[in-house]
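Team,

Forwarding the record for the chain on the shared tracking sheet. I've put the sequence and predicted structure together so nobody has to dig through attachments.
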Amino acid sequence: MASYLPEEWVDDVKMNGLMSVMKERIVNKADYDRKMRFWTDTIRSSCIGEKNAVFDILTLKKRFRRKDKIPASLNVVLDNLKKQGDVITVGEWRDRHSGWVGWGISKTRGWMFGGSSDYEQLLHLPTVKTLGQELLTIYNDELRSEVDCTGEVVTYKEMFERAKHIISTSETFDIVLDHLADTGEVTVGNTKNGEKVLKFKDHGSEDPVKFTEADASVVDIRKAMTKLDREIQQLEQKVKKYDEQCRSCLRAGDKGRAQNFLRQKKRAEKDVADKDMQYQKLLTMLHQISAAKNNKDVLKAYQSGTAAFKATLARQGLSPDKIHETMDDVVNSIDEYREIEEAISSPFAGASSLNDTELERELDDLLSESKRDDSMHLPEAPTNRFGLFDKEVTPEEDQLEQRLARLRQAV
């Protein structure tokens, strides 16, 4: 039993009912819905399990054959899936993606096998979407972060090899790529040699994915690097071989042959160094290609940021001229305020000068009068011999005067 078959597959009673003819839904709604849901899920799981979204009715009958019975209502289930848009013919898919060539192929197949024969190739779209997501997962996990920084470019052959555990046929792989191209996740291009190349979307950029000559050059550079790497490995094996042979000859005493092997070893080592230098130059070129793309993205970010900043300034009414004008207005306003304060705090000019003059004149008059009064009232002349005014003399003072008189007489 295939791993994708449901658990009910081993239950004879349940499966006999599910394999029987489906009656109209109006007759038995519950039975119809149960069988429709079972076979819809089983078809989906079988497509995932077989790693193939393309099938025909004969293929389904082989997958779901149980002992000597096959599902009696596969046609009814497929018609319902077509109405829901989950199943279309491969011809219809090619009509959408391959132009007139696909139209001619699908029409020829229709004329040969009929419009709804058991051989008509059908496509299960939910499986295509699921495989598309799994393919993107493989790319993101294994290829996006390549050491050469150009992981978005992958050859068709390499991607198909990596996806073989989920997609078994190239037809389904191509259909999945068409689906991813429809969603903008990948585009398909060709190198100058005609090799098919896939370019996945760089989610760090808003630009739509587009295959360019630079992408084709990346593939050519990688192929050259792969070839150089293979040659380097072969030369390293030769170096190892010549070294062993040289040592063997030395142990055997055959110095001539040992010298010959040593010369070949040196030549092989030089070839390894030369090819490794070429490999490093190619790797540097890949890094430069990636850096150029990153610089372009950074420049676009700068441009977008500058435009947004200017738009914000314009929306807010801000500009250098307006700022300078406003600052000048502020300075002028402050100067005017200072002048107003000075004017308010200063005294009235007319009244102040008049009062000062009158006060000075009055002070001068007062000084003049004071001088005249001083000259008119002189002090009285002293009346005693000491030049002092007469006044009452105390006994002590009188005694002192007498002693002074005696001293003068003695002298």
